[in-house]
Amino acid sequence: MTETAPSPDVATTDVLTLCSPAEVLATVPYMLGFQPADSVVLISLRGPRQRVGLTLRADLPQAGTTPLMAEECAGHLCRDGASAAIAVLYGSPQEALWPALRAALDALQIPVREALRVDRGRWWSYLCLEPTCCPPEGTPVLRPSDPGGPVRVGAHMVAAGAAVLDSRQALADWIAPADPATLSAVEDRVAAVTEEAVRRSVRGGGVSGCRRLWRRQVAVALRRCRQTPPPSWKDDEVAALLVALADVPTRDLAAGWVRTDHGQRSAEAAGAGDPAVQQLWAELTRRAPRPYDVAPASLLAHAAWLSGHGALARVAVDRALRSDPTYRLALLLQRLLDRGVGPSTPRRSQPRASRRGS
Q1: Which residue has the higher pLDDT, 180 or 358?
Q2: Can you tell me the distance from the alpha carbon of 28 to that of 288, in angstroms, rounded to the nearest whole number?
Q3: N or C: which terminal CB in the chain sees fewer CB atoms within 10 Å?
């Protein structure tokens, strides 16, 4: 399995400069959202200032597939415009893997600034053979909270609202369906809300009247989700939002609202780097009966993609497509993730193009 996390399309004046292998290794789990294992991680560095672009994670290849996998990974970085790369191999890779990656990157004229192997809590450098710097027994991997660890990385990531789960499976579990009793209760309320929408439409408001209500409900929810402490959502509220988001124009409007209290539109979409919005979409996804989970799962994938959280975007897309394999927004996001396309791509190719269908 290969996953790509595009660099977030969000301007920031707080730039974290990575100065050592220890800081690189402390940062990678935050970039992925979970602690990688048995993985290849490649980080694209762009331009003369070596800014982080695409972050790619792939499972360690099976025997016989190493050259093809290496070429595929290098190709993603090339399409991202990488001027250099950082490579980190987790677990016990085949001896041929690093040479294959190096050859594939060299063929595309992408120099490797650092290449590390991490196994059983220690790291080694493929590029440094100096025992006083990189001892043969390896160097302990230090977390930001460990004595002598990269505290600066931890402080920066916590301030940015980033978190690390234990594994990719833990990320998928975060949006797994709730217990049957919860799903059944929400399903009952969804049926009631849908009946009320039909009555409202028949009484003269039509679909446009319903849509005005749905948009107000979503705008209020986006404001509430940023409150401190976070709100708890009643079954009635969850059901109303699920019915609202099942309407494609309302869903697309939700994806395009910015992080303000006024629901105004802007070039940046709602949820980019906003954990509160992602938490709202995740809560709706967990508590939604099928097929109503497909819209919030797709919105979560969209928000995660915008913020550069490729692993979360991937598990959310997978959840959406399990519910509806034909859902256009989820399919579009799947293609973007497969191709390593970032949110800086011209907006005509971004998810609002899905208005032709679902």
Answers
A1: 180
A2: 32
A3: N
Per cent of the chain over pLDDT 90 is 50
In what helix (H) or strand (E) does residue 112 lie, and over which residues does it extend? strand 112-119
Is residue 87 a contact partner of residue 56, using CB atoms and an 8 Å limit?
no
Is 259's pLDDT higher than 50? no
**Band (266; pLDDT cuts 50, 70, 90):** very low
Please check whether residues 150 and 179 belong to one and the same domain.
Answer: no
- When divided into structural domains, the chain yields a total of 2
Instruction: Report the C-alpha gap between 25 and 52 in whole angstroms.
Output: 14
The amino acid occupying position 62 is: Q
Provide the residue type at 355 as one letter. Answer: R
Residue 328: both structure tokens together: 């256009």
pLDDT at 321: 97
> In this structure, are residues 324 and 339 in contact, taking their beta carbons and an 8 Å threshold?
no
Containing domain of residue 99, as a range?
Answer: 2-164
189, pLDDT greater than 50: yes
Q: Cis omega (within 30 of 0) on the bond before 291?
A: yes
251 neighbors 295 (Cβ within 8 angstroms)? yes
Q: Which amino acid, 259?
A: R
**Amino acid 341: pLDDT:** 76
CB neighbours of 114 closer than 8 A, spacing ≥ 6?
21, 24, 86, 87, 125, 127
Nearest to residue 30, comparing CAs of 59, 5, 63, 1? 5
11 falls in which pLDDT band (50, 70, 90)?
very low
Q: How far apart are CA 121 and CA 35, in angstroms?
A: 12
Residue 152 has pLDDT above 90, yes or no: no
- How far apart are alpha carbons 158 and 174 in whole angstroms? 19
Q: Name 328's bridge partners.
A: none
Asked whether the beta carbons of 256 and 265 are under 8 A apart, the reply is yes
276 and 336 housed in the same domain: yes
